[in-house]
Amino acid sequence: MNEFKAFLKRKDIEISLRRYGIDALGAMAQGLFCSLLIGTIINTIGSQFHIGFLTNPVASVAGVDYTVGGLASAMSGPAMAVAIGYALKCPPLVLFSLITVGFASNALGGAGGPLAVLFVAIISSEIGKAVSKETKIDILVTPLVTIGAGIALSAWWAPALGAAAMKLGVLIMWATEQQPFLMGILVSVIVGIALTLPISSAAICAALGLTGLAGGAAVAGCCAQMVGFAVMSFPENGVGGLISQGIGTSMLQMGNIVRNPRIWIAPILTSAVTGPIATCLFGLQMNGAAVSSGMGTCGLVGQIGVYTGWVQSVADGTKAAITGMDWIGLILISFVLPAVLCPLINLVCRRLGWVKDGDMKLA
Fold first, then answer.
1. b/e 154-163 (16+ beta carbons within 10 angstroms → b)
2. 90-103 burial string, b = 16+ CB within 10 Å, else e?
3. How confident is the model at residue 165 (pLDDT cuts 50, 70, 90)?
4. What pLDDT does residue 288 have?
5. What end-to-end distance do the CA atoms of the chain give, in Å?
6. Coil, helix or strand at residue 88
7. Residue 99 has pLDDT above 90, yes or no
8. Read out DSSP for 258-283?
9. Torsion sign across C-alpha atoms 174, 177, 179, 185
10. Which of 260, 203, 212 is nearest to 233 (CA)?
């Protein structure tokens, strides 16, 4: 047993919730951002501003035409797998082999591909690391083992994992349609909490394919956390803190939350209010890329995702036009309500002595 532990340590194989549930999951979201999400944004810019280079096909693969954005989106599987491998500190031959693994697991996982990529890429990475540089023909053995394990696991697991993720996502979206008030609260609060925790709400939403009303509630929850923390901590953190949290991430407050969990009360209660307002009053839907549902105001990706969904819905005839009420709902849910409600709720917490000056000061 001691020899096995020494081997794992030498290979930097750390079997832990932090390594897989935080590092790998967070990296997967970055891979999605740099492929699927960027591709969607490029396509939207091209169509909205009538830029021929971005709307016309630039490549044809197996009879399928791809735009610039389409090429970026098509690489989401490899991008996620390589990002996961990078987070797991894979050596070069393992890292490069994950390109094939990611493509296979994402393709075989179908609409629930991101979840399949997460599991398959993690295991393939660790297997590849285990054999890396153990033989004199490493340049052959490591890619063969990594790709072989990845393809085998993809064929074995990816369809089932993808189907399970989509069924869960569909169940959440169906429940939100049936009970928009209750599910609006639950989805908004849970995804908002995930955004501030050191895990990836974007990757979770992508893995579950969370769109529609449930996606809109997720956006509301994320915005409540980001804008809420940014505004209510403004006296302590100034403009820099406003920007870094408001369009960066509320995860910056995690250290302060550990020291005083009560500073989290206001953003969580705000998300419990804005979630059902989004679902019941404005019918806010995320019909863009599912990963956008868990991004909130980070780079305004959540809002861009909602807009791209509007554009697509208008294009396919399911929505007549983008209305003024659409914009009012998006602005209120994303910015105005969190900026107003969160500081007010936090004021009550201050009056009760639960929160004091300096509790939200960023280092």
1. beebbeebbb
2. bbebbbbbbbbbbb
3. confident
4. 86
5. 42
6. coil
7. yes
8. HH-GGGGHHHHHHHHHHHHIIIIIS-
9. positive
10. 260
Which amino acid is present at 251?
M
Q: Which amino acid is present at 95?
A: L
Query: Residue holding tokens 């389409």?
Result: 70
Say how far apart CA 328 and CA 258 lie, in whole Å. Answer: 35
Which residues are CB-contacts of 73 (< 8 A; sequence separation ≥ 6)?
Answer: 35, 36, 39, 40, 43
Are the beta carbons of 224 and 271 closer than 8 angstroms?
yes
CB 245 within 8 A of CB 229: yes
- The Cβ-side half-sphere exposure at 360, using a 13 Å CA radius, reads 28
- Predicted confidence at residue 30, as pLDDT, reads 85
Digit-coded pLDDT (tens) for 294-349: 989 988 889 999 998 998 889 888 888 999 999 999 999 999 999 999 999 999 99
Nearest to 362 by CA among 191, 270, 248: 248
How would residue 285 be classed by pLDDT, with cut points 50, 70 and 90?
very high
Is 346 within 8 Å of 355 (Cβ atoms)? yes
| Dist CA 234 CA 343 (whole Å) | 10
Q: Which one, of 85, 83, 61, lies nearest residue 71 by Cα?
A: 61
Closest CA to 32 of 40, 43, 20, 23: 40
Task: Give whole-number Cα distances, 74 to 38, 61, 69, 78, 249, in Å.
Answer: 11, 11, 9, 9, 27
Q: What's residue 50's pLDDT?
A: 86
Q: Which amino acid is at 2?
A: N
Place of tokens 């910056």: 252
Distance CA 178, CA 172 (A): 10
Amino acid, single-letter form, for residue 9: K
Do residues 296 and 234 make contact, with C-beta atoms less than 8 angstroms apart? no
